[in-house]
């Protein structure tokens, strides 16, 4: 079992040991003093950590988060990481993401399309430690490949791949095989794993840049 | 190949320019921006750089969200105008079709729905073929109008949550269309909102040919139409007042504010109570 990042702890909520980070509450999650529950059922990265995948987060890393939505997961990431760039392209959830950013000194929100990294490469710095990706849209491998340029030589991709976003009719396993295969253009796969029971039909992928 | 940070060539004190650079700038590749900003004299040190980056990304993103949502309001405007065109054309064509069909079939009902269902008949003569083909055009136009309506119903809550809740998606979209956009609607005094869509009547009034109109398109709202005639003016004024507040909240904050809806409900109840028991 890999160690939790510094700044993430297992704490007891309702008698169960659950992940938690320290920071301003965001979405009405339960808290225990300064700690707030990080629900793996609501966060694919949380599920990957629960499954002890080697996500390459020890605490303090620089992170590019693709598909930040209203900031649920990225708020926890920013609680234990260094500079955290959050890219989201839908305006509505980005409004909520803004209030998450207002409470965190190291979170930089960007309303940008993750398929077009040149529109934010003038803002997001190079040599980042980790890309977390949860875009749930067609072309998930392409998004990851195009953003590889932001990673340092041994930087990691930590992606949640949603089968139904690529093809609703195909067998999830076939979709996953295709996506993983496409990722090898830019990455070397470290581990893949289903995110069940937390998230159905999602594959967790950890990869390092080639 | 351009590879320039957002801070290059702008002064840290010029927030308009730095915000524009975050929003519209680009680069073919990333670089060590914190280090380069310090070297360029933009930031005293990297810690300062991140503070600057944070406030400018928050502000730039806030503005970008607003612009994008306003672009969404123009989608609503086009959709509601297209829906009205489809409805109007479908109705006109239905009349023409029914008139012709009446010479070929018994019991032709001139209403739109009846004409649409004519399209299912099987033609026996060349003339019937022409008429039934027209009927199927009517049917397609009416279907198109329905699909535009559901598009509006789907988009309005995100674009204008308070107007949507107060007026319903279609009337909300019509008000935005009549004003020329959500921002324009938000900037109109409530007296103008009250008579939007009654431009002809207002013009006649200003030319001295008629009394001043008490309501425009908002007459279609239950709160006006369903209020007894002698108090309709007050109901229209109350509704228009709250609608313009709703438009302002939608434009400036975008958050649903339940209070204004409750206040309107109470206000209308009071107005109607004045006539309760009296003639209706
Ligand atoms: C499943 S949600 C992310 C949930 C979030 N990661 C969390 O756990 O809090 C996927 C998000 O990706 C966004 N998205 C999809 N395609 C995108 C793109 N090309 N660029 C940026 N964001 C995108 C969607 O708007 C949506 O908000």
TrEMBL record, chain A:
GO terms for biological process: box C/D sno(s)RNA 3'-end processing; tRNA processing. S-adenosyl-L-methionine binds at residues 72-73, 88-89, 113-114, 134-137. Keywords: Methyltransferase, RNA-binding, rRNA processing, Transferase, tRNA processing. It comes from the Archaea. GO terms for molecular function: histone H2AQ104 methyltransferase activity; RNA binding; rRNA methyltransferase activity. InterPro entries: Fibrillarin, Fibrillarin_CS, SAM-dependent_MTases_sf. The keyword Acetylation does not apply. Its EC number is 2.1.1.-. HAMAP family: RNA_methyltransf_FlpA. Involved in pre-rRNA and tRNA processing. Utilizes the methyl donor S-adenosyl-L-methionine to catalyze the site-specific 2'-hydroxyl methylation of ribose moieties in rRNA and tRNA. Site specificity is provided by a guide RNA that base pairs with the substrate. Methylation occurs at a characteristic distance from the sequence involved in base pairing with the guide RNA. Belongs to the methyltransferase superfamily. Fibrillarin family. This is Fibrillarin-like rRNA/tRNA 2'-O-methyltransferase. It comes from Natronocalculus amylovorans. The gene is flpA.
From TrEMBL, chain B:
InterPro entries: Nop56/Nop58 (IPR045056), Nop_C (IPR042239), Nop_dom (IPR002687), Nop_dom_sf (IPR036070). Residues 159-273 form the Nop domain. It comes from the Archaea. Residues 18-34 have a biased composition (Basic and acidic residues). Residues 1-34 are annotated as: Disordered. GO terms for molecular function: snoRNA binding. GO terms for cellular component: box C/D methylation guide snoRNP complex. This is NOP58 family protein. It comes from Natronocalculus amylovorans. The lineage of its organism: Archaea, Methanobacteriati, Methanobacteriota, Stenosarchaea group, Halobacteria.
């Amino acid at each position: 079992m890999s160690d939790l990042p510094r700044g993430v702890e297992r704490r007891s909520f309702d008698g169960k040991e659950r992940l938690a980070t320290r920071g301003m509450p965001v979405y009405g999650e339960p808290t225990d003093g300064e700690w707030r529950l990080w629900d793996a059922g609501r966060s694919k990265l949380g599920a990957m950590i629960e499954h002890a995948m080697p996500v390459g987060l020890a605490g303090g890393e620089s992170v590019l988060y693709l598909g930040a939505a209203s900031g649920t997961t990225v708020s926890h990431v920013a609680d234990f990481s260094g500079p955290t760039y959050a890219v989201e392209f839908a305006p509505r959830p980005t409004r909520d993401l803004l209030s998450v950013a207002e409470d965190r000194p190291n979170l930089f929100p960007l309303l940008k399309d993750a398929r077009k990294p040149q529109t934010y490469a003038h803002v997001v710095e190079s040599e980042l430690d980790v890309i977390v990706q949860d875009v749930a849209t067609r072309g998930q491998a392409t998004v990851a490949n195009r953003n590889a340029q932001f990673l340092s030589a041994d930087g990691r991709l930590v992606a949640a791949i949603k089968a139904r976003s690529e093809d609703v009719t195909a067998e999830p396993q076939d979709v996953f095989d295709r996506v993983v295969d496409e990722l090898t253009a830019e990455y070397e796969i470290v581990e893949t794993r289903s995110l069940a029971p937390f998230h159905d039909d999602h594959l967790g992928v950890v990869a390092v840049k080639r | 190949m351009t590879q320039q940070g957002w801070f290059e060539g702008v002064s840290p004190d010029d927030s308009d320019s730095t915000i524009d650079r975050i929003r519209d700038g680009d680069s073919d590749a990333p670089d060590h921006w914190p280090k380069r900003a310090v070297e360029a004299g933009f930031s005293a040190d990297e810690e300062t750089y991140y503070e600057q980056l944070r406030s400018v990304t928050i502000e730039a993103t806030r503005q970008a969200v607003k612009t994008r949502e306003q672009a969404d309001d123009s989608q609503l405007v086009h959709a509601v105008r297209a829906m009205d065109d489809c409805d109007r054309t479908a109705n006109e064509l239905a009349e023409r079709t029914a008139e012709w069909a009446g010479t070929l079939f018994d019991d032709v009902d001139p209403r739109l729905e009846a004409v649409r269902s004519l399209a299912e008949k099987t033609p026996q003569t060349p003339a019937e073929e022409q008429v039934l083909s027209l009927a199927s055009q009517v049917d397609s136009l009416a279907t198109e109008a329905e699909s535009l309506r559901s598009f509006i119903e789907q988009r309005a809550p995100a674009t204008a949550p308070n107007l949507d809740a107060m007026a319903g998606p279609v009337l909300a979209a019509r008000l935005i269309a009549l004003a020329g956009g959500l921002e324009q609607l938000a900037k109109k005094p409530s007296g103008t909102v009250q008579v939007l869509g009654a431009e002809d009547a207002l013009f006649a009034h200003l030319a001295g040919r008629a009394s001043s109109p008490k309501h425009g398109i908002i007459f279609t709202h239950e709160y006006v139409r369903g209020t007894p005639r002698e108090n309709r003016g007050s109901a229209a004024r109350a509704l228009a007042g709250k609608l313009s507040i709703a438009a302002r909240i939608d434009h400036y904050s975008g958050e649903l504010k339940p209070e204004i809806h409750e206040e309107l409900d109470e206000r209308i109840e009071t107005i109607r109570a004045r006539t309760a028991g009296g003639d209706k």
